[in-house]
Each structure stands twice: as C-alpha cells, then as structure tokens.
Amino acid sequence: MGRYYLLGKYSKHSKTLTLFIIMISVFMVISIFLPGKFLTIRNFQSMFSQIPEFGLLAIAVMLAMLTGGIDLSIVATANLAGIVAALILTKFAFPQIGGHEELFTIILAIASALTVSLICGFLNGILVAYVGVPAILATLGTMGLFSGIAIIITKGYGIMGFPEKFLFIGSGIIFLIPVPMIIFILCALIAVIILNKTTFGFSVYMLGSNPIAARFSGINNENILIKTYMMSGLFSGLASIIMISRVNSIRPGYGSVYLLQAILVSVLGGLDPSGGSGSISGLIMAIITLQVLQSGFNILSFSPFFKKVIWGLILILVMVLNFYSAKLSQKSIKRLKTN
Q: Would 306 be classed as within a structural domain?
C-alpha cells in the first residue's frame, strides 16, 4: 500500500513539474520571438484583464469534471445571468437617482445574476443526479435552453450603458492590481479551500473516483452532484459580472470561444476527464500557458478560426498523452504487484 501511495504521489508531483516546465517554456519562446510586442505593460494588462473571466469559467468546468461529468452550459449560464443583471442596471439605474439608490441597484443586479446562475446550476444538477441524464447531454440541452431564453429576452440585440460604479468591477484598480484579478484570486483560493479542506471537497473527489464506493461509504451522491453543479453555475455567474462590467455591454453568445478553452485548460492542467483527479494549481498554470499562447497568436494576427483549430488539436494531443501516461502508470502498478 505504501508503494502505491508513493507512486501516486510521485505521479502527481511529476504532472505539476511538467506543467510548470511547459508554462515557463511557452513564456520564454514567445518572449524570445516577440520581445518588442509581447514583453510590454500594455500586453500584460490585456492578459490580466482576460484571465479572470476565463479563469472563473475554467473553474466551473473543472468542478463538474471532477465528479466524472461536464458542464457545457457555463457560457450560456454566464450570458443569461449577465443579461438579467444588465436589464436591472439599465432599467433602474439612471442619473437622477441618488448614490445610495444606485448602489442598491448594483447590488440587486449582482444578486439577481448570481441567483439566476445558481438556478441554472440546480437544473443541471437535477437532470444529472435524479433524472439520470448523462452530464454531457443534460448540459448540452440546457446550453441551448439558456441561450434561447437569452435571445428571447434581448431579441438578439446587445444591452449597454451601465453605471460608472458598476464598471469599476471590471476595469478598476486597487493597489496597482486590477479588480477582476483580485476577484479571481479570491475565488480560486475559496475553491482550493473547499476542495482540499472540507468534507464536501473530499466527497467530490470520492464521487469522481468511484461512485459506488462513495455511496457505500455514506456519501449522498445526488446531493453532492447538485451542489457541485450549483457551484459551477455560481462561478459562471461571477464570470458574467466581470464580463459585462469590463466591456460595458452584453449580448447573447458573448464569450462562446471560452467553452472549448475552459475544457482544454482543465485537461491540460492535469484533470482526469473521467473524474476524481485534478487541482486548482494545475488549472491556473494551464490558464497562464494558454493565455500566453493566445496573446502570441493575437500579436501575430492569427485568424479566430485558425486559433480554434489549434485549440482543438492541442486538446486531442493532451488527451492522447494522458491516455498513454495512464497506461504506463497501470503497468508500473502491475510490476509493483508482481514484485
């Protein structure tokens, strides 16, 4: 048993070290080939402004994947939550109202967006946990449902023109650190604590590793699934607040490219697609790596369609490498058993 534990621990540290080397290597290569354009304050500010909203969506995907499922509705959830917040901000916040009333409107808009995102996550959880619909099909269906509702509400048009105080969330700076980055760091720390220091976090990993063993150990699988998908929805809602406050607008379909990238960084960050294995630290290193690549592609003026091809190829490559890595680990375990 001790040898299996050491093997698992070595494998985990090996993945973390590999991710770190990949991240540093990508950063150095882009810096060497694009020094005058990549290593600039303006470019780093641009990357820092994009990491938080994308990072929160990646955490949302990761939470669902840890249970052995997936949440394809994260972007649709974020859009619907953002539209609800935008409607409240544009209908009730106007120059004539006082400062306290405007602040109340902003708080109401944020609370409404998070409530909508929790409801979306709850619906996903019910479909997966109690109705028994496979997660990939359930969230694919709700993705279409939430997107359709968003289009019906807005009639396909964008909503813009939010109060200045609300825009501070997406573009403000505190002690030289962008507010969105502060929000992301706090949310990432909360996710680390929940996953590593709570009974709920242990149950999520246990459920993803072996649902039958989890049930026999006294874990309520259905309850854990619902809570996990609600958390996934909540992080999507937080991402929507940053999105709309950064660009001062919202429209149906905003950020659709984030879905593929969120799945990509989850897998690249060492998360097992079958569930039960993964860490926030690995996810963050993968996010930084992908953002550096994205910045390099933007500087080189790569087509958005070409970038999608690259993300898809990288995802396939990582999945293949993970498959063969798992086979090698199984062979190592067999050798230990024979010895």
A: no
